[in-house]
Write a structure and sequence with these properties.
Layout (H helix, E strand, L loop, with lengths): L26 H18 L11 H7 L4 H13 L3 E4 L3 E4 L10 H7 L6 H25 L2 H17 L4 H18 L2 H4 L2 H15 L10 H12 L3 H28 L1
Antiparallel strand pairs: 1-2
Length: 259
């Protein structure tokens, strides 16, 4: 499928004064705020790959933070593959192919504004490959305790609905419970990424509108198949769940584009 070209930008310039240090701010809080400010600008394309960030002193002054807080924030971006710093060469934004796109924080930055449709498509393609397999393994390997946790998460979704933070937390618990029940150590390493993908796509779909349909019955069908140890039905139900979630997200992106 055709890829959208990144937005052109001659220079990132100096950041706006969006971060004002207050007396209660801690070093960790400031570092996180600066990392989010720069990270969301990079992931959204407002600062393009290849751009050289404004110097440390200028950025720290523009953001009204200490140079150490700014430097630590850049280290966060470096660890996630977004930038590279070299002595006397400065800090440059790396190509998108170098980014850790499954890092939960990078996923959060991607959904700060309007996510790229291509990125959302790729994210759901990954979910469609991985999550049905997770559901299959969970149906085959789950313990009674793991099934109880899955059912408890489903109960939370039904009680609170995904329109509430409590309901969305239960949704995350549901997917994490499935991963644990799959008993695959390597797949478990995807837990934070899948949880973040579920969280941010759901939150995005709820911006300014209600969900077009209730996704809880889709989760219930997965849970029922896992309870019955029906691996084929669990995988099929999860495939439907992911496909419908992708459809809802595409409609939300299209609606945002028409607004």
């Amino acid at each position: 499928m055709a890829r959208r070209k990144p937005g052109s930008q001659a220079s990132p310039g100096t950041p706006s004064r969006a971060l004002i240090a207050g007396p209660r701010d801690t070093g960790r809080r400031l570092r996180g705020a600066v990392a989010q400010h720069l990270g969301s600008a990079i992931v959204s394309g407002r600062i393009s790959p290849g751009s050289l960030l404004t110097g440390e002193v200028a950025n720290a002054e523009a953001l009204n933070v200490s140079r150490s807080a700014y430097r630590e924030a850049v280290q966060v971006l470096t660890a996630k593959g977004l930038v590279e710093s070299r002595p006397r060469a400065g800090t440059r934004v790396l190509p998108r192919s170098r980014w850790n796109l499954l890092d939960p924080m990078v996923l959060a930055w991607a959904f700060t504004g309007e996510p790229e449709a291509d990125f959302v498509h790729d994210l759901f393609e990954l979910r469609a490959v991985v999550e049905p397999a997770i559901a299959r393994f969970a149906a085959e390997r789950r313990s009674a305790e793991e099934l109880a946790r899955l059912q408890e998460a489903l109960d939370g979704m039904q009680r609170h609905t995904l329109a509430t933070e409590a309901g969305r937390a239960a949704d995350r618990d549901f997917h994490e419970a499935l991963l644990e029940a799959a008993h695959n150590e390597v797949m478990m390493s995807l837990a934070a990424s899948i949880s973040a993908a579920v969280q941010w796509t759901t939150t995005y779909k709820l911006r300014g509108r209600s969900l077009p349909r209730d996704p809880v019955p889709d989760h219930a069908r997965v849970c029922e198949a896992v309870a019955e140890r029906d691996a084929d039905a669990a995988a099929a139900a999860m495939q439907v769940l992911v496909d419908l979630a992708h459809q809802d997200t595409r409609e939300a992106i299209a609606s945002a584009g028409q607004g």
